[in-house]
Design goal:
The complex is a heterodimer of chains A (about 140) and B (about 700). Chain A has about 140 residues and is an alpha/beta fold. Chain A has one domain: Rossmann fold, CATH 3.40.50.2300. The C terminus of chain A is likely disordered. Chain A contains 5 helices and 5 strands, in the order E-H-E-H-E-H-E-H-E-H. In chain A, strands 2-1-3-4-5 form a 5-stranded parallel β-sheet, with helices on both faces. In chain A, strand 3, helix 3 and strand 4 form a beta-alpha-beta unit. Chain B contains 18 helices and 23 strands. In chain B, the strands form 5 sheets. Chain B has a 6-stranded antiparallel β-sheet, sandwiched between helices. In chain B, strands 8-7-11-10-9 form a 5-stranded antiparallel β-sheet, with helices on both faces. Chain B has a 5-stranded antiparallel β-sheet with strand order 13-12-16-15-14. Chain B is rod-shaped and about 215 Å long. The two termini of chain B are about 115 Å apart. The chains are: A alpha/beta (about 140), B alpha+beta (about 700). The interface between A and B is medium-sized, with 19 and 23 residues.
Chain lengths: ~140, ~700
Amino acid sequence: MSADRKYRVLVVDDEAAVLLTYRLILERQGYEVVACGTSTAAIAAMQAQQFDVVLCDYSLEEQHTGFEVISAARKIDSSIPAALLTGYATKETADEAASRGIGVMFKPIEIEEFLATTSNMLRRNNESKQEGREEDNRGSQSGH
Amino acid sequence: MATAEIRLQPARMNGRRTTQSRRPAVLRLFQAERSEEIFPLLLEEIIALGNPRALVVDVNLDSGEVTPAAALKWPRAQMEKFTSALWMQDHPLTTILHGARPEVLNKSTLHNRPIYVHPILYSNRNLCWEADRIRTSSCLAVQNSRREKRVRLEDQVCTTCEMRAYAAAVVVELPKNHTEQAVAELGELIDLANRYLSRLFKVEHYYNRMRDMEITIAQMGTVMQSMADPVILTDTQHRVIMQNKAAERFFRVPDEMTEGLVRAVEFNNLLFSAALSSMLVSGSDSHRDLTLVDAIEGEEMLFEAVSAPTYGPDGIQLGTVTVMRDVTDLRRADQELRLNYERLSEAEEVVRQDRDRLNLIIENVGDPIVVCDGKAKIVLVDPLAQELFGTEMDVVRDTVQFQNQTKLTAFIDAFTSSFSDRETAPLRLYNPTLRQEIDYDARSGKIFGERGQVAYTVTVLRDLTALRKVEQLKVERRMLEIEKFAATGRLAATIAHEVNNPMEAIKNAIYLLAGAIPENAAPVYNILKSETERVARIVRQMLGLYRNTEQVKPVNVNTIIEDTLLLLNRQLQRANVELQTELEVLPDAVIAADQIRQVLSNLVINARDAMPNGGKLRIRSRHIPGYDDLHGWVRILISDTGSGIPQEMIRSIFEPFVTTKGERGTGLGLWIVKGIIQNHAGKLSVKSRVGRGTTFKIDLPVVKL
């Protein structure tokens, strides 16, 4: 990915004030941000456009969890980096997140940490994607 | 007894008589100095009176034989007829001897011519000295002389002086024309001679008696001297009359006189005198213990003096005989015996007390005690064990007791043959009193015999049911406390969570406002920012509590330490903290792992913060066994080489919202640590020196259930 296109970040949180501040912080950082207040809205947004990273609150409306949103995102893009933003996480939650390659950030989140983690996820994912693409190119060339 | 010897000496007399001029018969007989001279003189006088021949027959009073003893002018051949014996009653000589009266036999079987036979018998007109001295009239010589009471020839022994008398007969052949006058004169002569004879005889008897006495005295003296015990004869004034050699050793001043010896002897004499006086006074009790000094050896000897008075023939006390027995060894032996007996008694007393004490202990142990011999056979049980195994060792009728015994014997058997000196094993026995099976802790020890073999085994059965129940309750309560703490944590977390989102928004908003604040509002903005960050930290801490949702279960604390350090290792490295761990083998502790993890995490973070310029963090764990097998502790020590805590702060560091970290701390870390450790019934303490470092010590209880 290059400078010609901005990274697109999906932020999900059921607290409107929190969601707004996340959006503002990320936008100030130069990301293109889509902010959703519910899991349904988030899943709908993902179907409408592609994202580079998903940052999702763990507990959402009506017993919905961040895992659902991330699962939906992974259905579309299996390698999409994702992180849970949560005030608390049980060991089981933390273990599940770790096993699925989902990062966990505990609220209150240090903004520096928040931004660093996000950009790290994007950079790592971008690098691995480029490598994959190069490999694909080599494969198609040899096929010809 | 002495008897006068009458010798036959005819030849000598013949030669002498004819040549010398004659003196009156009385004077000649008077000249006789010895009894044996009397008969020859008498015979000579008889012949001198004009009698043709004469002889003397002597009676042996021992054998009763009558034989001629001396003769003058009597043909030897004719003398045989005068041999007789006292029992020959028809012999004329015997008859006359028994009759004790002189007789003239004109015609007899004895001689063909008339003879005068005059019997003579030991006789005196006066009492002898002996009879005189002891004032008795019973004198044989006088009795014979007076003829008041005839004493038979066979019984001629003096009852007073024990002198054996003599008897004889003078036989004189009378001339043809003898007159009665002449016979009477002859009788008088013979009587006179007999008187002299009796007198001499008596003297000779006394001489013999004296000689006998001397022999007796010599014998007694020898006996006395040869006695090993001192024997002393004293007079009534306690003056020593006689003493044997053994006594001289103590009472006689020795030849080589040294002052010490003399003093010793004098002292002995003094003591002896005193003992004698005391014995004399007491009268009946005539023995005393007497310590004397051996004048030669110089050592003290203990004697038992036994005294007896000596009396004269007149019944007057002459003195005292004292025999002393050396009882030194005897008394020493006696003393030793007594001492040994006392020692034995003391030892016995000690043993008895020990036994009583032991019995008291056994009675008060409150647990069944069983003593078995080397073959695992029960030899002793206390009352509690009796209920389990019965009173009779050999015959058990009760099935329950029999089953219990079988179980016990199996255990003891294995233990006896094992190599360990003591052993603890669970033993499930049926308790008839409680009517239920009880899990006993059988604790056995061995008592070894002289040869190192197992002589006895002692087994104490501890009923740990009650104790286990109490421990179970404690654990349950602790779990409840932990749960309560967790619930509190949950409440705090719920509140924190509710605060969290608004705060997240506030915090983000403050971030977004940065740069848009007028310069004069900057200080206010900074307060807003820092205080919000502080609230954020508190909320984060409170939310941390809620994450501890794990259950309480047995966990190895070492694993928790390692987990925690793994998480924090990077932070420590970054802070330039050198980590050092010493983890010993630990038993599992029943704990909430997450809570303990938080404790460790809090303390490690604190340590790190105390060492801003780096340092050393040392974490140690060890097992502290308890006073019994049931309890114990797991100890965790967390030491840093940091700045330390000032003494005045030590008391308050566990209180909430107290911090040394200023703006960066919440003041909740140690408060949470304290709460968690308290909930686990653990102990928490801290030692710190400013500039040197701080050590936190945590003891978590371990219970073997």
